[in-house]
Design a protein that fits this description.
Blueprint lengths: L4 E2 L2 H8 L10 H9 L3 E2 L2 H10 L4 H11 L20
Parallel strand pairs: 1-2
Length: 87
């Protein structure tokens, strides 16, 4: 397992890309994500990936599924106090 990784749009898209035979198009990107001790996906990057994958909903669902229970809350308040923490 390697250090945490901060994902960017290009890296995530390459990690998800598949060849016609189903193999990874860029296996080194997929491997980097799998080997990282944590993958940090900033909210704006996730939104951009969602836009690029608008015609590939299966790939986007796979990404969200692999994020697990953290997907809906990632970067929700960016660490800033909102005054609504008890909600």
């Amino acid at each position: 397992m390697s250090d945490p990784l901060v994902a960017d749009t290009g890296g995530l898209l390459r990690a998800l890309a598949r060849r016609p035979d189903g193999r990874a198009a860029w296996p080194e990107y997929e491997e980097a994500l799998r080997d990282a001790s944590a993958v940090i996906v900033p909210a704006l990057i996730l939104a951009e990936v969602d836009y690029f994958l608008r015609a590939e909903r299966t790939a986007m669902r796979k990404l969200i599924r692999e994020m697990g229970p953290w997907a809906p809350t990632m970067q929700r308040n960016h660490g800033h106090r909102t005054g609504r923490e008890s909600l």
